Amino acid sequence: MPSLFYYFTAGYTRPIKPMNTIQAAPPITSPQQLNEIRVRRINTTRIIKDTFFISLGILSATFGLKGFLLPDGFLDGGAVGISLLVNALTDINLSYLIILINIPFILIGYTQVSKIFALKTLAAIVALAICVALFEFPVITHDKLLIAFFGGFFLGLGIGLSIRGGSVLDGTEVLAIYTSRISALTVGDFILILNILIFSVAAYLLNIETALYAILTYLVASKIVDFVVHGIEEYTSVIIVSKKSNEVKNAIIEKMGRGVTVLKGKSGYGKQGHREHDIDVIYTVITRLELQKLKTEIAKLDGEAFMVENSVNDIKGGMIKKRPLTH
After folding, report:
1. pLDDT in tens, 194-204
2. What is the dihedral angle through the alpha carbons of 217, 220, 222, 224, rounded to the nearest 10 degrees?
3. Which of 156, 167, 290, 295 has the fewest Cβ atoms nearer than 10 Å?
4. What fold does the segment set 235-312 form as a domain?
5. 156 burial class (0-12, 13-18, 19+ CB within 10 angstroms)?
6. Rounded to the nearest 10 degrees, how much is the dihedral formed by the CA atoms of 234, 239, 245, 251?
């Protein structure tokens, strides 16, 4: 019979691996898992930002309507303007009108943009209607000029913030995009024609003065939307073709403190006719305040340099927003 020592030694013990053969523990996360975590973090951050922008936009638009436009019967353009006009003519609750008039635009957004966009727009418009129905703001002023200006300001701010959040509070822009795809009209042409119709009906059914103030409100609101969506800073991208491309590149980097991208190109046809040879093309993005200085620096180096300027709505990444302006 085996001894008790056998059971505890030979019978039930396992051989112990040498220390140098013990495998290292596998990593907690693989590169694929790290990428998934990064994507989730980006999506979560985007959702938080979108919710913040849309919520702030709804509050701003509500304040513009209840604090300025509604108490004195002022109008605006777009779907909001149609809602205000119908409300002034029929006394139908404005909250219902905001939802009903925007439903066709939401359906177009569902088919032409995306499902997420349509759902976010629906939620934003319903939230705006609820805020208009429930929130009360003190009447700020009865001065018509101030009402037109600041009513348009806060309404445009709200619409612009909602666009930054990935939705709209005024669905006419969605309809304008759809119309531009199936006709020769541009987005701007359609919005202009629609608002002319709205203001003409307001002038005929209400009075000319109301229509004129509505035009002023619309102009202020549209300008504020542009500022919020595209940014107050206006950027310009510049393409420079020069025989002294290396000197131009160094001047932009050292004297202006801006980044450059060197594109490899080949000359084709110019002042000297057909001459094919490799050439460096300089690409940079600057603010409009630096444009004249850039032209001056390039003129010092090469008075015959070829430059192409393009407006840029906004930028992301790079170094232009991280460095102070240099003069």
Report:
1. 888 888 888 88
2. -140
3. 295
4. Alpha-Beta Plaits (3.30.70)
5. buried
6. 0
